Amino acid sequence: MSRLITNAIRSTSASADAITMDGSGNVTFPANATCSGTATGFGGGKILQVVTVSDSVRETTGSVSLSSANTYYDTPFAVTITPSATSSKILVMGHVMGEASIDDYTMMWRIERAISGGSTTNIQAPSASSRPLGISMFPSGFYNSNNESTTTVVNFAGLIDTPSTTSAITYTFQVNATQTNSVTFYYNRTVGASDGIDYERGLSWITAQEVAA
């Protein structure tokens, strides 16, 4: 059996190594590495860091009071990430489980992006006259003669943001009752709090990843 033993690979026309390996065999590519043919660039697309909510936030139960119709309110599910480069993209994903004191189809959600020392941006649909704006509606949960023990869930993944900053960024999950005042959204639980098989509990979270450009 033949084998090649090396700790670096470099083109004959290059001034620096394209691939290096440490004593444990881990391979490292330079941040600006590229290649031709059918392969993609090595530098772009790397996950540089991942942040998510703490276990205590993910597991807590509680509620958000929505006093005014078609108004967004913060949930506890927020995450802060500080990009290492202005060219980085932020990949945001999350999962929220809960139940509102009104029909699910009247509930909407979005993500708020707040840059420390900078602007706050609502990640939602573009302005469309008097129509409610958000990312999506809550899917309607099934219930059979019981409207206080059937939760809904929002899952989102692959939400790419390009904030162009190295300041701390906070992404916050927000909820909205589009047509009704005085609504309560209960997270990680049902509206009813009875200790029974019909009253489920769950987990909710939001995660952000910095992706190299």
Low-confidence stretches: 34-42
What gross morphology would you assign? elongated
Number of strands: 14
Number of domains: 2
Order of SSEs: EEEEHEEEEEEEEEE
Oligomeric description of these chains: single chain
Query: What is the CATH third-level topology name of the largest domain?
Result: Jelly Rolls
Structural class: mainly beta
Strand content: 35-45%
Q: CATH class of the largest domain, please?
A: Mainly Beta
Describe the biggest sheet? 6 strands, antiparallel
Radius of gyration: 23 Å
Cα distance, first to last residue? 40 Å
The residue fraction in helices comes out at under 10%
Number of helices: 1
Task: Identify the CATH architecture of the largest domain.
Answer: Sandwich
The overall pLDDT, averaged over residues, is: 88
Explain how this protein is built:
This protein is an all-beta fold. The chain folds into two domains: 1-43, no CATH class; 47-211, Jelly Rolls (Sandwich). It is 2% helix and 40% strand. A hairpin with a 5-residue loop joins strand 2 (19-21) and strand 3 (27-28).
Topology:
Blueprint: E1 8-9, E2 19-21, E3 27-28, E4 47-52, H1 55-59, E5 62-66, E6 72-81, E7 89-100, E8 107-115, E9 120-123, E10 136-137, E11 152-161, E12 169-177, E13 183-187, E14 205-211
Antiparallel strand pairs: 1-2, 2-3, 4-14, 5-13, 6-12, 7-11, 7-13, 7-14, 8-9, 8-10, 8-12
